[in-house]
């Protein structure tokens, strides 16, 4: 059930034909981003889309009080920034690298040309947009209706799934900063620290510095109430 809180665009590129992949690869301009470097900011006009080749990127909004709310974290293999172009609108959020990342840029002109040429890519993007809408609706429901403890458990499960795709070993460590995790949950750092302490005392998680390892997925799933 955790899948209803995670975008399914990570494998979009892999589902394309060799011809479509080649078209995209030919127009990709690859750039390295430093940790905390912005990719685009809310309110700016889009001039292309992005494909995350390596690393992780957070998608967030800032409220009127200057507080950051992380909406989503992108993994390697995911496209982002295309909804603004398809809707002919400005970016509705800000994206920033949360670790050193390699990101490919595809200009708006090239992107629209490929959409015209590839029915498969168009259909996959439409399917991905539809799924993203459902994911965002689910996440907004969680933020408005669940307790902080439930939100922390759910956020840890989501991050476990995201970091798992990078790992071939048994041990999966979440390395998101405490501030970013608090902003993802929608709570204060102090409240997050207390709940993480409780989870550690109950042996649901292990913490090594800023690293978090989930050791009792079943209990965290029960706390998160993801079947509700």
TrEMBL record:
Q: Which residues form the HTH crp-type domain?
A: 146-218
* All copies of domain Cyclic nucleotide-binding, residue ranges: 12-132
Q: What Pfam families does the database record attribute to this sequence?
A: cNMP_binding (PF00027), HTH_Crp_2 (PF13545)
Keywords, alphabetical = DNA-binding, Kinase, Transcription, Transcription regulation, Transferase
Picking any one GO molecular function of the record gives:
DNA binding
The terms describing its cellular component in GO are:
cytosol
- PANTHER family in UniProt: CRP FAMILY TRANSCRIPTIONAL REGULATORY PROTEIN, HTH-TYPE TRANSCRIPTIONAL REGULATOR ARCR
Protein name, please? Answer: cAMP-binding domain of CRP or a regulatory subunit of cAMP-dependent protein kinases
Question: Which source organism does the UniProt entry give?
Answer: Chryseobacterium limigenitum
């Amino acid at each position: 059930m955790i899948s209803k809180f995670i975008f399914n665009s990570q494998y979009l590129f892999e589902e394309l034909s060799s011809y479509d992949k080649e078209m995209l690869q030919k127009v990709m301009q690859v750039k390295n981003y430093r940790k905390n470097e912005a990719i685009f900011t809310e309110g700016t006009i889009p001039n292309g889309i992005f494909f995350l080749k390596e690393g992780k990127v957070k998608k967030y909004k800032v409220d009127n009080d200057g507080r950051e709310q992380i909406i989503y974290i992108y993994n390697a293999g995911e496209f982002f920034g295309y909804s603004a172009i398809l809707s002919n609108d400005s970016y509705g959020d800000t994206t920033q690298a949360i670790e050193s990342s390699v990101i490919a840029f595809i200009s708006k002109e090239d992107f629209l040309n490929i959409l015209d040429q590839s029915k498969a890519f168009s259909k996959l993007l439409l399917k991905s947009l539809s799924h993203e809408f459902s994911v965002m609706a689910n996440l907004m429901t969680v933020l408005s209706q669940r307790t902080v403890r439930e939100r922390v458990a759910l956020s840890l499960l989501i991050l476990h799934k995201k970091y798992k795709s990078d790992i071939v070993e048994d041990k999966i460590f979440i390395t998101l900063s405490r501030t970013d995790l608090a902003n993802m949950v929608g709570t204060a750092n102090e409240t997050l620290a207390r709940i993480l302490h409780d989870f550690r005392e109950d042996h649901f998680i292990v913490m090594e510095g800023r690293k978090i390892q989930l050791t009792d997925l079943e209990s965290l799933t029960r706390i998160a109430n993801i079947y509700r």
